[in-house]
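[job 0412] stage=complex_fold ligand=farnesyl diphosphate status=START
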Amino acid sequence: MIELIDKKKLPRHVAIIMDGNGRWAKERGRDRLFGHQHGVISVREMVEGCAEIGVEYLTLYAFSTENWNRPESEVQGLMELLISTIRKEAETLHKNGVRLYVIGDFASLPQVCIDELEEAMNITAGNTKLNLILALSYSSKWEITEAVKKIAQQVQNNTLAIDDIKEETIKQNLATANFPDPELMIRTSGEHRISNFLLYQLAYAELYFTHTHWPDFRKENLYEALLNYQNRERRFGKISEQLK
Ligand code: FPP
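[job 0412] stage=complex_fold status=DONE, emitting structure tokens
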């Protein structure tokens, strides 16, 4: 299927809501963490797949602000999985030219997690092949609230006039200031929701939903999503004829 993809019409930025780990595990009579562990294999596949094909930015929704409300054992298991995965994979990411970023309420993460992520971000800081952005303790409403606070602070300090607040000002104060907006958002496991993920940045993104659970999501599934994206007409509010 990869040969059908037009490399000149790739999205620069793909964002993914990795859903269905719990259901995948339940279908196998296992606990939810078993699903998350298998989800890591899919994460690796997507990082490889995006780097190979030439997608420049990949954002993964790994842990939402709301996920803190899950049972303590699951939250702890997810944090441990994150720490061990970053520890194991940082060197491989680096060798493959991947640069790691985190968006979200970084300070709310356990200190070991912060240390591990900071180290991996430092090691990979010079890489340019693929930008891998992990949304951790992230929610769009949190991010927009933070942006409003930052902008209000600038107004209060007299470094920004109210009339100078433009769309660009909002963009520059979001956690994603340095990244282009995603052109394609994928959600696995059948739910048709955005779930507080990149609400501002997805304004014109194509949304792709699949029933495949995240632990079953492989490169072929990514190619299918990319092909589906390439067969859509992106009009940005214009009419078909204006695009020709
Ligand atoms: C959603 O499935 C998945 C999560 C909340 C966690 C995703 C985490 C990983 C794939 C592993 C760690 C990631 C990295 C980047 C190393 P769910 O639990 O909501 O599934 P359900 O809807 O079927 O219950």
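Residues 57 and 179 are 8 Å apart (CA to CA).
[job 0412] exit 0
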